[in-house]
Amino acid sequence: KQEVTQIPAALSVPEGENLVLNCSFTDSAIYNLQWFRQDPGKGLTSLLLIQSSQREQTSGRLNASLDKSSGRSTLYIAASQPGDSATYLCAVSVTSNDYKLSFGAGTTVTVRA
Amino acid sequence: DAGITQSPRHKVTETGTPVTLRCHQTENHRYMYWYRQDPGHGLRLIHYSYGVKDTDKGEVSDGYSVSRSKTEDFLLTLESATSSQTSVYFCASQGFSYEQYFGPGTRLTVT
Question: How many interchain CB pairs under 8 A, A with B?
Fold first, then answer.
C-alpha cells in the first residue's frame, strides 16, 4: 500500500521567506504526483501536477520537484505572502487505470505579516 | 476549475437514516471520485467511477454505495448512517490533463 508522508505537519514563517514543503512516498512506481492547497473550510485547489517522467513543474512563484527513485517531492514557494497561509497536500497516483490518489496528511503553513 | 458542485453543503441526520450526497460536474470528465476527510486520517477514497454505470470501491467503502447514471452526476449514498460517518465529504473529477478537481465539500453530521 502506498504511504505518503508530509513533514513538518505545520510551519510558520515571516513574510518574504521562501517556503520548502516536503512529501515522501513509499512506492516509487507512481504515475503522477499532485500538489494541492486547502483553505480552512474549503475544498482542494490543484496547484501543480508532475508526471512520473518529469523532474519538475513551475507555475508562477511555485516550483515542484520530483525524485521518483528516492520517493520524494518538494514544493517551493518563493517570497511567501500572508495569502499563502493554507494547508498544502501532496497526493500520488499509482496506476493509469483508475488514477486513484493517495494523500499525505498535509503541511499547514502560516505566513506572518 | 472544473465547475464541480456538491449538494447539500451541510446536513445533519439521525443514526440509521439513509443519506444521499450529490456531485455534479459540467466538464464531461470520465473519472469521478468520492473522498472523506477526517482529522488524523486525511483524505481517503470511498468509491470512484470510470464511466457511466462503471464504479469501484476505494479504501473505505463499507457502508457506502454509489451510482452514476449520467456522466455529470455521481451520487454517494450512506445506506444507514452511523456516527462514524460524520465527516466532510469531497467529490472530485479528473481532467483531461490528469489533474483532479475538487468540489467545495459536504459537511455531514450524524447524531
Answer: 52
Q: Inform me whether the C-beta atom of residue A105 falls under 8 Å from chain B C-beta atoms.
A: yes
Alpha-carbon gap, residue A94 to B18, rounded angstroms: 33
Q: Do B45 and A100 touch (CB under 8 A)?
A: yes
Alpha-carbon span B59 to A44, nearest angstrom: 19
**All residues at 6 or more sequence positions from A3 whose CB lies less than 8 Å from its CB, including other chains:** A25, A26, A102
Q: Is A46 on the interface with B (CB under 8 A)?
A: yes
pLDDT tens-digit map of A55-113:
999 999 999 999 999 999 999 999 999 999 999 999 999 876 778 899 999 999 999 99
Residues in A touching B98 (Cβ below 8 Å): 32, 49, 51, 93, 99
Q: What is the pLDDT of residues B28-87, one digit of tens each?
A: 999 999 999 998 888 999 999 999 999 999 999 999 999 999 999 999 999 999 999 999
